[in-house]
Amino acid sequence: MATATATKFNALQALLGATLKQELTVYIPRLGGNFTVRSLTSDELSEATVQATIPGPKGTKSLDDRQFQAAVIVKASVDPDFNDKALQDHYKASDALDCVGKALLPGEIAKVLQAVMDASGFGDDEELLEEAKN
């Protein structure tokens, strides 16, 4: 029973000392440089879902996957900032979400999106377990 208490205490201390802000860099070979992305909160992921939800027939709603991916990337991108007017003008984009689709190739979108998900805690649990052991 002492072990269970110690485990709970350590988890509590870890939560009290933790930050939700995580950043990762992802290399984009075509551009010859790194993008910096940050973790997203549950609220930010919910906002991205709302942004990408489109009305359907008879009052139904569906999620536009491409819009959702773009919204997640826009919210998580530290560098570059897809809200930058010059970047949007360069790609003749109507807004930041449109800019993601026009500036990045599909594989690059997937790579950046994966980095955002990793930073947000959706990474490989086995890899995280190995890191915790070391």
Number of contiguous helices: 7
Low-confidence regions = none
Tell me the name of the CATH class: Alpha Beta
Strand % is: 15-25%
The main β sheet shows up as: 3 strands, antiparallel
Helix content: 55-70%
Helix and strand pattern = HEEHEEHEHHHH
Q: Please report the distance between the alpha carbons of the first and last residues.
A: 26 Å
Number of strands: 5
Give the CATH architecture. 2-Layer Sandwich
The overall number of domains is: 1
Spatial shape: globular
Instruction: List the strand order in the largest sheet.
Output: 1-2-5
Average residue pLDDT: 88
Structural class: alpha+beta
The radius of gyration is 18 Å
Indicate the CATH topology: rbstp2171
What tags apply to this protein structure?
three-stranded antiparallel sheet; globular; 5 strands; alpha+beta; 134 residues; rbstp2171
Question: What does this molecule look like?
Answer:
It is a single chain. With 134 residues, the chain is of the alpha+beta class. It has one domain (20-133): rbstp2171 (2-Layer Sandwich). The chain contains 7 helices and 5 strands. The strands form 2 sheets. It has a 3-stranded antiparallel beta sheet. Strand 1 (23-28) and strand 2 form a beta hairpin. Helix 2 (42-52) runs antiparallel to helix 3 (65-76), helix 3 crosses helix 5 (96-103) and helix 3 packs across helix 6 (106-122). The two termini are 26 Å apart. 18% of the residues are buried. The mean pLDDT is 88.
